[in-house]
Amino acid sequence: MTVDYKAIVKEGLWDNNPILAQQLALCPLLAVTTTATNGLGMGLATMVVLMITSLVISLFRDIITPEVRIPAFILLIASVVTVVDLVMNAVMHDLYKVLGLFIPLIVTNCVILGRAEAFASRHKILPSLVDGFTMGLGFTLVLTVLGAVREIIGSGTLFANASLLLGNAFAFLELQLISDYRGFLIMILPPGGFLVMGFFMAGKRIIDTRVAERKKQEAANQPADIALASSSD
Amino acid sequence: MSSNKKQLPSYRNRIGYHGGLLGGVGLIASMAIVIADVETRSAIAEAKANDQKASLEQVIPASIHSNDLLADVLLIPDANGKEKKVFLARDDSGKVTAAAYEMVGYGYAGEITLIMGVDHEGKILGVRTLAHSETPGLGDKIEIAKNDWVLSFEGKSLGNPSVEQWGVKKDNGIFDQFTGATITPRSYVKIVKSGLDFFSQHQTEIVESDAPTSTDPTLDEMGNPTTAAPSAPAKTGRNANASDVVPNVMGKLSHDS
After folding, report:
1. Which of residues 83-142 of B touch A (CB under 8 A)?
2. Domain that holds residue A161
3. Distance from CA of B143 to the nearest CA of A (A)
4. B25 → closest Cβ in A75, A86, A93
5. Distance between CA B245 and CA B236 in Å, rounded?
6. pTM
């Protein structure tokens, strides 16, 4: 059985993106993405957890029976999150102070259980790991862009506090885009998250429809081309 | 028939297998957590101590003390009977110059934890917010990173401004409220004031407490290493509570008892 890694990547980043397509994990999404930095941090932490849980659950997939899979998965996910929480607190304490609140929240992130259920419990270790990585990457990208949009409109900055998350080397990312900006509070509060996400989802639909139409047209043109080519022979 | 599905051993359908499976998973999960906890405990404690040191240094200027703030702790029961850690700052002669402690109270959207430094006369040296869940963009101006509003407490004490003026401007006090957020600064001022009340109630106890000899090498060199340090908490006793009634006469209380 060969695994189509390209398809897995495409699924995670676009076709089956955790937020834009599956519409999972909206709770952390709305709570956290007040700035691009927060979104990036939450996305990265989720990605790490997603990869580890995918790995662990894929490892146990032949032992765990369907009847007790949900409690077993939850137990494994919760312990992985706790371990990540502790390790981050010990090793990357400054980063932990920024993200600390959100890390335990990852347990409740349905993307993790969703991927465990839909992918990792049915596939071998490597494909599961790749799936965890790309799903996490897709999640991170959406969270970061969403955070950036909310931050720019809401407080006129971009990547504020990025140096806390990524180290001083990334201080150049911190931009004050609109000077002396009074702020637009609703964008920072959860409703703003809903608004921006709605536009994102609509945008994805539009692009998908356009792509599908173009493919249909191409498919319609192609037989004609072949017919033309063969007739001219 | 079974070409589609993998042939599963029959024991997998028994309830004992399910129970054992869940138990096994639980065992693995808890083992992982125990190992992680043991491995990270000291590093986390160290990082937390560093954090505490950093926040203490923000509210007690380095110029007025020469001791290790983290090592010089006095435990005083607060209004709820819980032991509060009071970090003491001492000058070279071992006299208490300032104290710092955490205060917790309720803001608009949950608990606000702050740390405040108070000098031996009851004047505020600095106030910093440690944790809160106030509205971003409105109530979060209590963070020093967002706004320098907390600096307006510096130099204030219970008598300055007067008790009636310990409030936000909307309540005829002297402290600014934020545009769009009154509840947060109102409760913040209340928390800081209760912190000052706490200090005035225990001022004698705090100011006259002796330095812990084991952690202060300068005392050893002076030749009198045992300056009744073990009896210090007992000596200060409860008579400091007499100041409950007159919280306003700060600065004189240290000689009362």
Report:
1. 135-138
2. 5-232
3. 14
4. A75
5. 18
6. 0.69
